[in-house]
Amino acid sequence: KYFCEHAPEYHVMAAGSLLGVTLAQQESFPVGKVDMLRIYPMDFEEFLYAMEQESLCGILASDDHLLADTFAGKLTELLYQYFYVGGMPEVVKSFVTHSDLKDVRRLQEDILTAYRNDISKHSSKTESIRIGQVLASLPSQLAKENKKFIYGVAKKGARASDFELAIQWLIDAGLIYKVSRVNKVAMPLRFYEDISAFKLFFLDIGLLCCMAGVPASTLLLDTDRLIEYKGMVAEEYVAQQLSAAGIDLYYWSNDKTPAELDFVIQYDDAIYPVEVKASTNVRGKSIAQFIKDNPGMKGFRFSLLGYKTQDNLTNIPLYALPFRITAKG
């Protein structure tokens, strides 16, 4: 405020984690004098640039889908590397410079330890324990077939009242993304939000895999590398990419049937159902049936298949997701 009013010739930039900025007990805030910019972990497009894959970025940014499909093998390999490394700048820099997976894990563990220390610093002892329980449960929550957050997974016999503040704390600190269920897929989605049912995703896929103890061989070497973790890894990846683009995420499920949409997004003036698959096996009828039941609605499937559109359902390769957001569709 002082600089704005008495020394406007200076341009001031300040950086800090949301742990301190959001949660600190401030005496005042210079309302109207600060432009806020939220920084996210690097998305897959930024990871490719860091890996000096500018030519592949150019191909993915173009509309030449046939050409992009010819590089599917290389792009899938890089995608799996991103699953393991994630988008934290220091970790990416280390991987680009040294290609040392052990050093990647060490840095990720250091970051997670720093988060835990910050949590202890900015919260009470009781709340710190509950926050830690929520974080520790994320891998097992997301590894379930139904990824709805279950309080009993965080602590046996727990209820919503035990963890509501801890979850909100993590959301305010920018460490997790909350994806609420909607009871109806219609504009605007927020009108139909069911606050009692939601999924929680971590801010970075590499840190989540580190928390889960996913070994490098599972993601980088095995031919069936995602069999055990495919649901967790693929949905976490999509949630991170879309959230970093500023897109609010929801999901839909029907309690009367096993039908579920992994995500539902409101983009510009339209609603899009989204399905996520971690491989080329895209069997599953939920999204196809949903689009059939809602004439005129278009949907997206993110998988390892190539580009394909059929009956208002467009398949986009997982590695092309950030580039399709940039291209607005």
Structural overview:
The chain has 329 residues and is an alpha/beta fold. The protein has 16 helices and eight strands. The two termini are 40 Å apart. Strand 7 and strand 8 form a beta hairpin. The protein is globular and about 60 Å long. An eight-stranded mixed sheet has the order 2-1-3-4-5-6-8-7. Helices cover 47% and strands 15% of the residues.
Q: How would the blueprint of this fold be written?
A:
Elements: H1 2-6, H2 18-21, H3 44-50, H4 54-61, H5 65-70, H6 72-85, H7 89-98, H8 101-122, H9 125-143, H10 151-154, H11 160-172, E1 176-182, E2 193-202, H12 205-212, H13 216-220, H14 230-244, E3 249-253, E4 260-267, E5 270-276, H15 286-293, E6 299-303, E7 308-310, E8 313-317, H16 321-326
Parallel strand pairs: 1-3, 5-6, 6-8
Antiparallel strand pairs: 1-2, 3-4, 4-5, 7-8
Helix pairs in contact: 6-12, 7-8, 8-9, 8-12, 9-11, 9-12
